[in-house]
Write a structure and sequence with these properties.
The structure is a homodimer of 523-residue chains. Chain A has three domains: 167 residues, Thiamin diphosphate (ThDP)-binding fold, Pyr/PP domains (Rossmann fold, 3-Layer(aba) Sandwich); 130 residues, Rossmann fold; 175 residues, Rossmann fold, CATH 3.40.50.970. Chain A is built from 20 helices and 20 strands. The first copy, chain A, has a seven-stranded mixed β-sheet with strand order 11-16-15-17-18-20-19, sandwiched between helices. In chain A, strands 3-2-4-5-7-6 form a six-stranded parallel β-sheet, sandwiched between helices. In chain A, strands 12-10-9-13-14 form a five-stranded parallel β-sheet. In chain A, strand 2, helix 2 and strand 3 form a beta-alpha-beta unit.
């Protein structure tokens, strides 16, 4: 066991923090414990790594996801042993499905203390592996710089993803000689060769009804612009149902969104004989249903990968458009703001108000579940903005995502959309919004139920819910009072029950900086 | 792929529910999703399995822990795939450390759907194994009854623990012929042989300063009574620092509690030459500290296991007491209720009011962290009650534990003690208390900081916290308003700032049934 001594100018913890900051890691979403105290102390000497306290780890990991999606560079988290990591694992599942670079720092017992199996001891590797693209423990301070660089690089290796760096307490507190921190070079995406481009161009030419499905990198601005050129040729373009980050609104190409449900997909893809995939995989059903197929590729349709998630989809799309002699520019949306809504408060009317008042460069974090289709309908012609969706199906990400997006892009207004059931998972994040004065409007859609489960109950063939089942699908009684919950964490809040109320409330919220919450009680 | 047909009278889901209820599993703490709809539907046909909705999975698993500790029989949870399980894993870590029988039902994709790696797919086994004493997936409906019995039996195999039964959606919905559900016989604890008893009796007789350390089964009523006989002989008796369940108050033997900190342990155990362990292992430091040993067994002291966690500690203690010719009854506490407190509100004054008004057979669920020692000081002579502690060090268990204890023992008043930092982890449980009208008084100790980390910062040698570190140790600004938070979930709440206010408030709360919350703002 070695301890920090004055003769050695660094410790494992200061080396870790120095290596992170030398590599442009700027935010640490943290919920520390005893084993992380030396890492916390190291932050005092490195003000360029911003510490952001989250009162639950699922907030920290979801915030790192939002940050990583917007910065295209990792933030770090600081988590307390196995249970702290586990609390953050559900949103890391979403981050893995969003291919977001994140460096999780997981504190652990001192290496020599593990053998005593103290109460907080557990198998962190087993917990972390399913949602980590890389996972290692720093067993000594001397390897700290090298392992940190390896971690950052792994998170930035296409298609990117969360990594887990386990930091035993003695590695953190042990002294070592200070060295200049090493720098990471992020690996580039592999280019797609011309043979594949040519073969796909031939397949598109020969197809009766070709479609293009975009995901991940291909659904960002540069990819959308190239995809629009193919749409101009008559190739219908879709994006994945759930996209980590997508620019929308005026000036952007607006591809169709692949529906969530098999029935909708079937209707949209009827007669399609060739499906080109860029930055994504063949589409599959979100869940299995009795008697329904798992694949969403229509029978008789050929699905061909133009660019996998690790390949350069933007260049591949450009090369394909060139090979097909597509025009240099495809269609984009014109600005069109709808009329003010009135009457009942519905997802559609909320969406109209959002479309009207969404400021330019706003970021919309969307976990609104059954309200989603209505609320996003009007905003495709709103001012240009970006949307971050729930990628992994684990609800409770909107509030954390919004925190991370607001930290990464302090000049943007962030709009956080959440179902009431979903918002309950990580409501602790409202406190972090208040503490950090983040510019976030949180909208909670209060339908007082897990509404999607009412639909899924029937769709899975489970029949109709009676007493016991209904207990598990409804969020009332009692009604959650989101105004109280929000104020209890320091975020001003209002309840709206009509379209007019919401229109006024959201208009004000869009214009004023700082956090606020609107409980939208749906009719 | 098979689907439910009218010709077959059961499904995998109804078989699972029937087998659970035939084996006396009476409560299901649930947060379901699409893949669990057939299990939910099966509950409609089985009213003796009570469905209790929890708005976050950490509430469900912690509630199952509280239930299992009090019922000495498992409840089940219902969790939604890998992320749903992960959200519940931290409190299952605590349950594993409490050796609580729990049957976790984890819904999964249909077996044939897994290969498509849909967004919610993940490696559930890897996530579940660290906190499960048994983990299996039911790959077909025909094995459902057998695997359910295996699961229940595994959870009840000494020393008991949480098990994970993975339920693919097609296993749940597939039809099969109804059969009478099989019954589980819980395995018994192994008896300790007389040779070991004799050897330990000799060691105690020869010792200058012997102590006995109790844990787990040995700290329940029958074990305490036998341990008191040894105390009467001059063997000082301790209990583990954190005990899953311990009877306290008038009529019970009150062993000393092993301190949390090395300094305290050192003072208590100075000169001890023999340490007898019953139902527990050799004591170790909760965390490592630079230059401090990991083991709490004093140098030169011999630690000897009388009964391991899987053995019958109660009979072993009785046999040892007989071998040493101890009196048949040892010391017990007399009822003594302290005077009403006045002045500043402190953990000690709160503890005095609790001791005064705690009803007979109350259950105290304790995650009060730095307030713990003060708050429990006065209650060792209160009316007889039981205390459930945080066993695994993952804070955020008091609210869930209280839910489970209240469901298991509806005739008892439950008192839930939580630090403000800890309570934030699982505050969603307040809603479940309101919905189920549970008889729980929740007391949140508001010191506006992770106070223990302020202490640990120094103790780990990290120095003094400056700007960045202080950000991560303090819960203010902004102040959490627990009255608003509680009311927002339907639980009436009051804020107390003096000992007199708290005394009045807790007296009323003890006398009135139903949930309420007291924010104790510490001086």
């Amino acid at each position: 066991m070695t301890t920090t001594t004055d003769a050695l100018s660094s410790t494992g913890a200061t080396t870790l923090v120095d290596t992170l900051t030398a590599n442009n890691v700027r935010a640490c979403f943290a919920n520390p414990g005893t084993s992380e105290m030396h890492f916390v102390a190291a932050l005092d000497h490195c003000p360029s790594l911003r510490p952001i306290l989250c009162l639950f780890e699922g907030v920290a990991t979801g915030a790192a996801d939002g940050y990583g999606r917007m910065a295209d560079w990792p933030a770090c988290t600081l988590l307390h042993l196995g249970p702290g990591y586990a609390n953050g694992a559900a949103n890391l599942h979403n981050a893995r499905r969003a291919y977001t670079p994140i460096v999780n720092i997981i504190g652990d017992h001192a290496t020599y203390h593990r053998a005593y199996d103290a109460p907080l001891n557990s198998d962190i590797m087993s917990l972390a592996r399913p949602n980590s693209v890389w996972c290692r423990s720093a067993e000594s301070a001397s390897e700290m710089a090298a392992i940190t660089v390896e971690a950052i690089r792994a998170s930035l290796t296409p298609p990117n993803g969360p990594v887990s760096l386990i930091l035993p307490a003695d590695t953190a507190w042990s002294g070592l000689r200070a060295e200049p921190p090493p720098k990471v070079t992020a690996p580039e995406r592999a280019r797609v060769d011309s043979q594949r481009i040519e073969a796909i161009a031939r397949a598109v030419r020969a197809a009766a009804k070709p479609v293009l499905l975009l995901g991940h990198q291909a659904a960002l601005d540069a990819g959308l612009r190239q995809a629009a050129r193919l749409e101009a040729l008559g190739v219908r373009v879709f994006v994945d149902t759930f996209i980590a980050r997508q620019p929308r609104g005026a000036g952007h190409f607006a591809p169709a969104r692949l529906p969530y449900r098999a029935e909708g997909v079937k209707a949209e893809l009827a007669g399609v004989d060739v499906m080109i995939l860029a930055g994504t995989d063949s589409p599959v059903a979100f869940f299995a249903y009795p008697g329904q197929p798992s694949s969403f590729v229509p029978e008789g349709c050929r699905d061909i990968s133009l660019a996998s998630r690790t390949e350069d989809a933007v260049h591949a799309l450009a090369d394909l458009a060139d090979a097909l002699e597509a025009p240099l520019r495809g269609p984009t949306q014109e600005l069109h703001l709808p009329e003010a809504p009135s009457g009942k408060l519905t997802p559609l009317s909320v969406g109209v108000s959002i479309a009207r008042h969404l400021p330019e460069n706003a970021i919309v974090c969307d976990d609104s579940v059954t309200s989603r289709d209505g609320v996003t309908a009007a905003s495709s012609t709103a001012r240009p903005h970006e949307v971050l969706a729930l990628t992994g199906g684990s609800i409770g990400i909107a509030i954390p995502l919004a925190i991370g997006a607001a930290v990464a892009k302090p000049a943007s207004k962030v709009v956080c959309l959440s179902g009431d059931g979903a918002a309950m998972y990580t409501l602790q994040g409202l406190w972090t919004m208040a503490r950090e004065s983040l510019d976030v409007v949180t909208i909670v859609f209060a339908n007082r139920s897990y509404k999607i489960l009412h639909q899924e109950f029937t769709r899975t063939g489970a029949g109709s819910p009676h007493a016991s089942a209904a207990t598990l699908l409804n969020l009332t009684p009692p009604d959650l009072d989101w105004v109280s919950l929000s104020r209890g964490m320091g975020v001003p809040a209002t309840r709206c029950q009509t379209a007019e109320e919401f229109e006024n409330c959201f208009r004000r919220a869009s214009a004023e900086p700082g956090p606020c919450l609107i409980e939208a009680v749906l009719a």
